[in-house]
Amino acid sequence: MASILRSPQALQLTLALIKPDAVAHPLILEAIHQQILSNKFLIVRMRELLWRKEDCQKFYQEHEDSVISASREIAAFFPDFSEKQWYEEEEPQLRCGPVRYSPEGGVHCAAGTGGPGPA
C-alpha cells in the first residue's frame, strides 16, 4: 500500500518503546502497532530486544526531554543508524512520497526503493 505525503517541513524522528507486558500479549501488541499506523506515523526502523533490569535503569536514569537525549536513545537501540544520513537521504523521500508500508519488515519506506537503510 503506497501513500503520498506532502509536507514542507522536515519529518522528526520519534522513538517508541513498547514495554514487555504489552509485547507479551500479541493482541495488545497488534493494537499498539495499528494505533501507531492510524495516527500516520511512519515506522522507519523496528527492533525487538531484551534488556536486563540494570540496562533499563541506566536508560531511564539518563533520559531527558531534549533532542540530544533523543539522539542518544536512538543510538542505543539502533547503533548502525545514522541520523545525519537519514535526514539527508531517507527523510526527503519519506516526506515527499510516495511511501509504502511493508508488513513483512514492519517499516515504511519510499515507494520504489528496496526498503530503509540498515536496521
UniProtKB/TrEMBL annotation:
Keywords: ATP-binding, Kinase, Magnesium, Metal-binding, Nucleotide metabolism, Nucleotide-binding, Transferase
GO term, biological process aspect, one: nucleotide metabolic process
Cofactor: Mg(2+)
Highest rank taxon of the organism: Eukaryota
Gene3D superfamilies hit by this protein: Nucleoside diphosphate kinase-like domain
Positions of the Nucleoside diphosphate kinase-like domain: 11-85
Keyword Transferase belongs to the record: yes
Protein name from the UniProt record: NME/NM23 nucleoside diphosphate kinase 6
